[in-house]
C-alpha cells in the first residue's frame, strides 16, 4: 500500500504509507507555521491532489520567502522543498518556482530517481 499524490490525472509521487503520512503531516505543520494554505487537498485518507496555484505558492514561501534566509529554518525545510519541487516538476505546475530552484538542484537530481510514481 502507498500514498498517491496527483496533479490532475498525473500521479507525481507514490511513496510508502509511512513516508506519505510523514509528508502530509509535515505539510500541514509547515502550512500552519507560516500561515499559508498548503494546496494539498485530501481526496481520500491516502490520496492527495496538489492544487495547481496554491501548492506552488506554499512551496515558494517555504523555500524562497522571507523566512528562508534563516540558516536553521533552511536546514529544516530543505529536503521537504526539494521533494515538493520534484512533484511540481512532474506535474507541470509552478514553472516559475521550479525554474528558480537552482539551490535545490542537487537534492532534486537525487530524488527524481528515488521517488516512485
UniProtKB/TrEMBL annotation:
InterPro entries referenced in this protein's UniProt entry, alphabetically: DUF6086
A Pfam family recorded for this sequence: DUF6086
Protein name (database record): DUF6086 family protein
Organism placement in taxonomy: Bacteria, Bacillati, Actinomycetota, Actinomycetes, Glycomycetales
Amino acid at each position: 500500500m502507498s500514498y498517491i499524490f496527483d496533479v490532475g490525472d498525473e500521479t507525481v509521487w507514490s511513496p510508502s504509507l509511512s513516508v506519505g503520512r510523514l509528508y502530509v503531516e509535515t505539510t500541514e505543520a509547515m502550512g500552519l507555521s507560516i500561515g499559508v494554505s498548503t494546496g494539498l487537498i485530501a481526496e481520500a485518507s491516502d490520496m492527495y491532489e496538489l492544487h495547481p496555484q496554491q501548492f506552488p505558492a506554499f512551496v515558494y514561501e517555504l523555500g524562497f520567502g522571507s523566512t528562508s534566509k534563516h540558516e536553521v529554518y533552511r536546514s529544516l525545510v530543505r529536503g521537504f522543498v526539494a521533494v515538493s519541487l520534484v512533484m511540481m516538476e512532474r506535474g507541470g505546475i509552478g514553472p516559475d518556482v521550479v525554474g528558480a530552484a537552482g539551490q535545490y538542484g542537487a537534492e532534486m537530481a537525487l530524488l527524481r530517481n528515488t521517488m516512485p510514481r
